[in-house]
Write a structure and sequence with these properties.
This protein is α/β, with parallel strands linked by helices and 106 residues long. 20% of the residues lie in helices and 47% in strands. It has a 4-stranded mixed beta sheet with strand order 3-2-5-4. Strands 1-6-7 form a 3-stranded mixed beta sheet. Strands 8-9 form a two-stranded antiparallel sheet. A hairpin with a 3-residue loop joins strand 2 and strand 3.
């Protein structure tokens, strides 16, 4: 199961409302960086074959089944630290992150 904090849910709901369309947020992984994978978070306008839909705190999360092995148990938060703000991914499957924090390995 993938879960959202209240802050992440609010930020996603606001973004979807301001955009004016979309069924939810697509969460996945892509090959990237020095550690192997990077998280992908984007608007979902439709589902495709192999997608799962998970509802959490009023937000529909769309995840391709092939990415679920990397994301199972993850919690997404939205934080603001000084001038920086953004989504943070707390993933129990991560074994390490690269020094810059852009990619991870499982």
């Amino acid at each position: 199961m993938i879960s959202l904090t209240a802050n992440a849910s609010k930020k996603m709901q606001d973004a979807l409302y301001n955009r004016g369309k979309g069924i939810g947020m697509r969460i996945g992984v892509r090959t990237s960086g020095c550690s192997g994978f990077a998280y992908v978070l984007e608007f979902a306008d439709k589902t495709f074959e192999g997608d799962l839909e998970i509802e959490d705190r009023g937000v529909t999360l769309v995840i391709n089944k092939k990415d679920l092995v990397y994301l199972e148990g993850m919690q997404i938060d939205y934080t603001k630290k000084g001038l920086n703000e953004g989504f943070e991914f707390s993933n129990p499957n991560e074994k390490a992150r690269c020094g810059c924090g852009e990619s991870f390995t499982v």
